[in-house]
Write a structure and sequence with these properties.
By secondary structure, this protein is mostly beta strands. The protein is built from three helices and 23 strands. The chain is 5% helix and 29% strand.
Amino acid sequence: MITAGLLAATVGLVLPQAYAGDQSSASAPASQAAASTSSHAGMNHAQAAPRAFGDDPDGDGYIPANPPVNAEPSQANPPHRYFHEFQAHCSVTHTAPDDPIVFPGQPGASHDHTFMGNVSTNGNSTSASMDAANGTTCVAPGDKSGYWMPSLYKGDKKILPVDVQTIYYKSGVTDYTSVRPFPKGLRFLVGSPMQSADEFRHHKGFVEGWECGESYFNTEFPASCPTGQDVQLNIRFQAPSCWDGKYLDTPNHTSHMAYPVVKAGTNDNVCPADHPVALPMIEFKMAWPVNGDTSDLRLASGAAHTFHYDFFN
């Protein structure tokens, strides 16, 4: 895993070396559709019952931070400094019908996911197993975080992103100096496989939606993409970056995280009072080698608007 020291040295996004009580170094650089080849397409991840396993031995869905982190949302507006971001470049490790966040200890229970980063990520992954893994497909050798998203299909053929994919680490708040490293073991879901097209389009993480060629801000896949071997289908989607400081996971895998809010009377982004801890804001920028007719494209989770992704630090 990438250390907090390396994160702090990154130009622009200044992260503390550690925070009070931190016991570890930070990780990371940080509807119905056409029938799917996976029998789990369209399953309701949001209603998956918590299960006793690994990091959640009592099975209540809550994984407490040990110790918890107390903070006040920063109201500061420091001088502008570069872009307050850096990039993790990671390639695909494998695909599998696994999801160690939503279905921990249940290999094969999920729709198919495309995994990047930690080479060991599977249905039985825990914080300890991720930390003990001996490999990553990220350019930074210390990045043992796991990243995954629903697999893309064209007809019955699975389409994998090519080469390294860009995962941005940005400051979601105006006071970039208040951003702390991710706590070890933090995990969350961004978006939902059960969201409607309208919910996807108006999601706080929606940046440009699906795009290819000159077609942008699409909720569903563009009707077609330009022909040419260099054409790609892209999506950009941002994660929440404010943490409650109490839990590394919650039963719905989202409520311990929140998006920044705009401070009244200003244009400044700050963390809300109930999620006061500013963490890096992850932004997925994924690209698939897709061109021409896209009428037979689908995600393992369903239609294009069911796009979501998971992060396990």
